[in-house]
């Protein structure tokens, strides 16, 4: 074949190949446009970030395409779809993406905490507003926060008191992006609206709102602060997210009529499982019927520890003293337990994290903040003989898990593990506790010591040395610096100090130390 003819044929063949490649490229480009590929990648990154933040996916970067990570991704996606009531496919479909793009709370939906865990171990809580959003007037912010807290106080025994200085149980602030010591960050407009932390020290109870959002008090463009705050305060009180779309604790923002009551039955059931129902309306007694903490003649009906506090019962009232808070809280007994009578005679905390209280021949068992069903029961079911008609005092030694019951000059010992009275009892109190010669009105254990109360005096008792170490006024726990009556005399085995100032100053120093630690752990930028 001549050279020119061969060259022409070669050029023609090359041109056909080039045209074929161009056609194929155009066809492939039409089938997989660049913007679609970019969009898929964007959706995958959105889903991965969402599942990392709210479902504990914990995959870093864009490596979820690996088989192991892909399996984790699909599993968490199914979990998220099930939570929101979507069709569970494990695929990133349009309905799933739509949910992920809705503004919401920054608290994870899983892997954190639930309402089965204890909430605050007190009913009187404080809150403090650290700063204000420029979107609303300070008065509107104050009102929104107050109304949001009232949502929860209406269905529980909780009360909320605002403070302007110091550390509150619930510290409220408007923040942006990475803020202070907070481990959770905000992401700018839309996305996460706020977050809160469960009850506890440090950040516990604290609530933050994203300042990059537009906050409103009523109708308009933006997010209603009252609705978001009421949701976040649910977390501050110990609630987790609900998958009930009618619930305030549903994680996604739903614009409701703020004038309507926002709690669903699911919300009410959850919060009351922690704190119980609101107390019945009671009329506060007037005149001299209310006891005074610093009355030098003050006596108590019963005393017990309960978790991290000490409860002092008197008539219809009780004082609550905490190791980390100076002073005492004064409450009505029926504001905690409406079914309990006044004038209780004995109380103690069992190793099962239960509180047992006694009056006459009956006793009640309290778990958390609820009286267990089936109570009261007779004290004779514990093994007391029929001649015993009431208990004067009781205390459980948590080292031995033995409970001592005091009746007149006698004491019984009860084995909490065997749920039975120990053999060889009752014995005289003086034999069990040398030096304790008087009838016991109340008793509790604290830091390895027993504190026996008789009239307006208390005896600090060293259980190992088996002697009285100090005799002090009953109200020394309330920081009442009342001098001990010098004419009071007591016969003790071994050396007994009759000066109450030593333990009083010791308690003040201890309370001050705890308070400083509390402030340091709660302070943040």
Automatic annotation (TrEMBL):
Hemopexin repeats lie at residues 291-340, 341-386, 388-436, 437-480. Ca(2+) 5 binds at residues 303, 347, 394, 443. Ca(2+) 1 binds at residues 135, 213. One of its GO terms (molecular function) is zinc ion binding. Ca(2+) 3 binds at residues 187-188, 210, 213. Zn(2+) 2 binds at residues 105, 231, 235, 241, 249. Pfam families: Hemopexin, Peptidase_M10, PG_binding_1. Coiled coil: none annotated. The active site is at residue 232. Ca(2+) 2 binds at residues 169, 204, 206. Can bind about 5 Ca(2+) ions per subunit. Zn(2+) 1 binds at residues 179, 195, 208. The modification Phosphotyrosine is found at residue 375. Keywords: Calcium, Collagen degradation, Disulfide bond, Endoplasmic reticulum, Glycoprotein, Hydrolase, Metal-binding, Metalloprotease, Protease, Repeat, Signal, Zinc, Zymogen. PROSITE patterns: CYSTEINE_SWITCH (PS00546), HEMOPEXIN (PS00024), HEMOPEXIN_2 (PS51642). Matrix metalloproteinases degrade protein components of the extracellular matrix such as fibronectin, laminin, gelatins and/or collagens. Belongs to the peptidase M10A family. This is Matrix metalloproteinase-27. It comes from Mus musculus (Mouse). The lineage of its organism: Eukaryota, Metazoa, Chordata, Craniata, Vertebrata.
